[in-house]
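Annotators were shown the component list below and the corresponding predicted structure, then asked to write short factual statements about the assembly.
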Amino acid sequence: MRAFVFRRLGLATVTLVGMSIAIFVLLRLAPGSIVDLLFSAAGYVNPVEKQRITHELLLDRPIVVQYIQWAGALLHGDLGKSYRYDVAAARLIGPRVPVTVELAVMGMAVALLVGLPTGIISATRQNTALDYGLRIFSLAGLSMPAFWLGMLIILFLVRVAGWIPPMLYVPVRENLGLHVLQFLFPALAVGYRSAALINRMTRSSMLEVLREDYVRTGRAKGLAGRVVVYRHALRNALLPIVTVVGTEFAFLIGGLVVTETVFNLPGVARFLVDAILWRDYPVVQNLVMLIAIVVVLSNLAVDLLYARLDPRVRYT
Amino acid sequence: MSRADAVASAPPAAVPAGRRPRFGAFARRSPLGAVGALVMLVVMVAGLAAPLVATYDPTRTDAAQTFVPPGPRHWLGTDHLGRDIYSRLVHGARVSLAVGVACALLGGIGGGAVGLISGLAGRRLDAVVQPVLDIMQGFPLLVLALVMTAALGPSIGTVVVAISVPFIPRVARVVRAVALGVRETTYVEAARALGAGGLRVALRHVFPNTVAPLVIMTTAQLGSAILVEASLSFLGLGIPEPYPSWGRMLSVSATEFAQRAPWLVVFPGLAISLVVFASNLFGDGLRDYLDPRLRF
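Structure shown to annotators:
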């Protein structure tokens, strides 16, 4: 088991190094130098200033040196400097992390709470009207843009419920109820898609398992239907679902980019979009790296969980 | 070239030889899939015939006709500049579908090629390709597309590349898995024994087996591609003006005026959802028809 964990950790590290190189190179494909872009965006004019920034960003050094400096700083927790705000990027990103984490966790919770039970119901009542209804419901979730669903929710809240969601971020300490409400609706918008995918995976995985011999044996020896479904079938059907949850988590982060924008939540994902629009490349580079780390870690967690759930997985 | 053509017209493995896939048979097996295909066809035709189907010039502004609710003159209402929503939607169908189809095809061809090479060209190359795919797949789709459009500058070409590149690892993985399985079969061994070269084995014997999963994945991506393009446009990084695109119709201005004129928000989103829903129905039907064992 320990060897397996170390091997996985090693693999994750290699992937992260690769991803950091990919980001680094990708952002250097941008036409023109970063300094020129910063200048045109920020309206600097002083050529001395320009030279100073070129030097500060190490753009006058070979690309390998630039990469090593950046990666080294990142390993020390130095997220660099935002040129748009002229402050350390960590000071801007830090307070935004909890917002995004909370939204992601709530979104995933919505996805699991909706996707898992509906998937089980669909599988146990295959080809009934209920199954068809749930399948259409899940297919609709895969077809709607998350940001549009968010817009519709806001439209509905204001027009029908007569409630205007707070335009500014409400901290927990200020008003807990309002804070939860403020996150609930974006979590619904971003979680629906994942719920749909989890529903589909649960359904097909359950259908497959329900046809296994041991399920028939369970029924034949007179076990209650519920025991067969939850104790015998679900536990074995869970494996592919865990994988989907893991990969969906990465997708969810992508969905946050638009959802935070629609709901005006001051999270990391929205900050990334702003940084891209303002061409604040040092910040973009570090934020994408941050997201990459989260994704790789969540994949790692899924791998480890998988090994724990399935005794057949060999720890080699 | 002629060899590739011959291969392309070879029947996919999952459908028994002698039985060519037909729409009638497909519609019987999967009525919902057929409905999806028809809806997409209708939208495609409407998009291609946009100048004939549209009632107004999609870019014409009219200061006296802003925020007109849906009615007989403007079927789906007008926006803040007095532009006709229906006409913009019909013209936008061109962009959204063209981008979606181009991305799905590029992703399918690229992923198919990478997967085939990776599965057949030997362990050493495979050991290089797999980590690269891992790295590409590590980025959330939208984030990778965002960074690529930011780095390459907004244009139709950039958007298509930015959306299709993230598809490559997903397709490549599936195709590689099939190729690895087929590589060990006796008929490939027999072909090799008869002196068939690597390229001939790859195109003549392995490739036909990957057609079914390839077609299924490509259709599945069509919907995702349309959604990602819409998200990029919504964020202001998609297809640039003057082309009307569904995603951009939902961007800033729509959010601002949503309360005053809900139709600005409702209809473009419905158009996106309808087309993606139809392509998902079609994709599901195709999967059931071509290869019921697959699931993703």
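Statements collected:
1. Chain B is about 70% helix and 0% strand.
2. Residues 1-18 of chain B have pLDDT under 50 and may be disordered.
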